[in-house]
Write a structure and sequence with these properties.
By secondary structure, the protein is mainly α. The protein folds into two domains: 93 residues; 100 residues. The protein is built from eight helices and no strands. Bound molecules: protoporphyrin IX containing FE (2 copies).
Amino acid sequence: MQRDNNYNAGFRIWHWLTVLSVFGALFTVLLRSTFLDKKAVAEILLQKLAALGVHLDPEQAIGVAKAIRAPMWEWHYIFALGLGAAIVLRLLLMATGRAELPLLKVLRAPDAMERFKAAIHLLICLAILVIALTGALYYYHDALGLAKESVHWAKELHEALLWPLVLLIAAHIGGVIRHELTSKECLVSRMIHGDEIRIS
Ligand code: HEM
Ligand code: HEM
């Protein structure tokens, strides 16, 4: 079935800004839990300093490891800003009729397959929205006059949505690749250049 999707410039910017911000944030989480894991870095510090005859308290080593990690983790918040901008852009696009409410796409889908794809898109949007809101709540709890303990649930929810989001994105990219291989609609190129190809 030929679709009449019109990926206007604003929609395309929204999509790729979302992709950049989400992948960026995921990458910082990956670094935080692997190469820059505070316990792993503290362990290296303790071992290397001990070899030099310097003995550090494990708590101090964790403090140094956190300081080493901090500039990298700043990027989590820089990508978070990108995600915030993408969400505002999407709201503007929807308000001006240049993008649809993801739920409407599900309700208006012509067949089961389209409904399934639209449902995946809807779940991705919902997961991203909840991740952004809970992340922002946890980040700004001081400014909002809230105690850290009272927003712990937000941090837990923020973290718990990591794997569901990764699985949904994997399904989305898998679906897009499958579509590219089995149809002539060239969805990916259209998501890059819109429907218009300029030659010359
Ligand atoms: C972080 C990764 C990604 C996220 C969060 C994401 C999110 C989304 C969402 C929510 C939609 C539905 C938009 C709407 O109709 O309202 C969408 C559509 C689309 N995405 Fe992605 N996307 C991601 C990665 C990618 C990648 C890597 C590609 C290309 C290989 C891609 C290609 C497309 C295409 C072609 C569509 C249009 C699909 C259609 O009209 O059926 N996406 N994306
Ligand atoms: C899709 C995008 C995002 C993903 C996948 C993501 C994922 C995560 C994960 C898994 C953690 C826990 C890291 C750990 O303790 O090892 C985390 C922490 C955090 N994230 Fe995000 N996040 C995203 C976007 C955001 C946004 C938009 C904000 C808003 C400011 C944000 C703010 C935070 C904060 C404040 C923490 C707690 C940091 C700490 O405990 O020191 N994140 N994020």
